[in-house]
Amino acid sequence: MKDHPARRLLLVHAHPDDESINNGATMARYAAEGAHVTLVTCTLGEEGEVIPPDLAHLAADRDGTLGAHRAGELAAAMKALGVTDHRFLGGAGRYRDSGMMGTEQNHRPGAFWDADVDEAAGLLAEVIRSVRPQVLVTYDPDGGYGHPDHIQAHRVAMRAAELAGDTAYGAVPGEAHTVAKIYWNRVPRTVAEAAFARLRETAPDAFGGVAEVGDVPGVVDDGRITTEIDGTAHAGAKTVAMRAHATQIAVDGPFFALSNDLGQPVFTTEYYELVRGPSGGGPGAREHDLFAGLPDVAAAPGART
Ligand SMILES: [Zn+2]
């Protein structure tokens, strides 16, 4: 990675669209600042429900071509965010969307939920050793909301960070690399509550209904939030990226809905919980940069000054 920027950020997600919803503003901001942003998506999202009626034929129970279509949506979203390094774990189609918890899709051939964690983590460890990111972003142990692919993405990401840094691990090529900081995607409860109040007040009829705070993945008490990334300047790019996932997301101004047609807020400040590595926030203060507290990249090209 000699020619790559000094600051390198890796995000691990379950399906195309998760990255834009959770981290779109963060990804756009760091890409614009010259950091190297790598997205690894673990499945093609083959089991997603399709919103536009004219594309309903793509669904798994009809043509079964949604995965390839969603890869195209993801490419368009990455273009909107300015991210050029996006990959599927083990290559497109290596792991299949496992569907919602408790469905027969959980155990279809290739289902990510059934993947051997060490094997999948090895594929990701190879990416880590190659890209050598200082920062990794993924989900919490519940995957944010209990979807099997999100839970598995968490397990694989955390295990991959371990394997990549283990000098004795030789199953994949590359020199050992320790990821300095690991974050889980979060939303502070008070921010979610305020955003839903605004939605109910200003756009109650934008969609078929309004979702609940509990429907938002990763909501926790504010005290657990260590880091907030103000992506307001990149709100437009995030919205364009979300719209690119047209089979999965309907956007209306600062709100959006998934296939359940329940309105949710688009967050343009994105929140994180630092679970490994040094905090650059100072005592009791939130960080405003995922690379904060890493002295060797603080003054590097592409770093914020
Ligand atoms: Zn997902």
UniProtKB/TrEMBL annotation:
The lineage of its organism: Bacteria, Bacillati, Actinomycetota, Actinomycetes, Kitasatosporales. It is an enzyme of class 3 (hydrolase). It holds the Pfam family PIG-L. Binds 1 zinc ion per subunit. Belongs to the MshB deacetylase family. It comes from the Bacteria. It catalyses: 1D-myo-inositol 2-acetamido-2-deoxy-alpha-D-glucopyranoside + H2O = 1D-myo-inositol 2-amino-2-deoxy-alpha-D-glucopyranoside + acetate. One of its GO terms (molecular function) is N-acetylglucosaminylinositol deacetylase activity. This is 1D-myo-inositol 2-acetamido-2-deoxy-alpha-D-glucopyranoside deacetylase. Zn(2+) binds at residues 15, 18, 150. Catalyzes the deacetylation of 1D-myo-inositol 2-acetamido-2-deoxy-alpha-D-glucopyranoside (GlcNAc-Ins) in the mycothiol biosynthesis pathway. The keyword Transmembrane does not apply. InterPro entries: GlcNAc_PI_deacetylase-related, LmbE-like_dom_sf, Mycothiol_biosynthesis_MshB.
